[in-house]
Description:
This protein is of the alpha/beta class. It contains twelve helices and seven strands. The strands form two sheets. Strands 3, 4, 5, 6 and 7 form a five-stranded mixed beta sheet that branches. The chain has a two-stranded parallel sheet with strand order 1-2. Strand 1 (7-9), helix 1 (13-23) and strand 2 form a beta-alpha-beta unit. The longest helix is centred in the last third of the chain and has 15 residues, at 195-209.
Amino acid sequence: NNYSESVLVDRDDFAISHLTRFSKKGTRLMQIDFAEAAKQLVADSQQFDVILLDLGVSSPQLDISSRGFSFTNDGPLDMRMDNRQSLTAATVVNTAYRSELTRIIREYGEEPHRVAQRYADAIIAARPLHTTGQLAEVIRQAHVGRWQKIHPATRTFQAIRIQVNDELRQVAEVMPLIPKLLKKGGRVGVISFHSLEDRIVKRFISEQAQAGYEAELQPVTKRPVDGSTADVHNPRARSAKLRVAVKI
Length: 248
């Protein structure tokens, strides 16, 4: 009962609204996160020739200040990729315990523990916070030392966004489902934008390559295609890494 059709998946209603033109051409649209989409497609015995996972935040989410992903333009502390969910960045920032805030900034922002703790203390002292500009200013004031190109709040914003959208769990859940969704000879490409995502993808593909006769995927790219060198005309691609594997 394996069959193939084009399926576009995004949990963001803004993205879905711009993809509806493809549904008229027989493409299936799914407004859901990609982990849940993969589970449904596996249950439906769907298989594909090509799968592309484009992880992380999108340009419209960053550019529309009301979405609350960026501090470049002040906006509400939202950061939800799916506006239907109740958890927002404001909830995390204003209600999380000190230990939880520290963990989020340390694990998802990859800040040193002392830095994460200092930022968490500053956030708690400044509560309630309502806008991205307020949060960024709190982090800036709590930062010790000089900074040049990268704003001190960048990693904290990444951390809170990952927490709000449960991003790493989804990557970890979707990767083992990929072989089930690919036809033999089918290929998967995964574009990640920070080391936490890339680490999960790299580990899974490496484990597949070392699984011997039980392997289902074989890496096509020995090293990831790096956005900073392969897509130099797009500044937002500078941290992107593309890994490709084929079903054997």
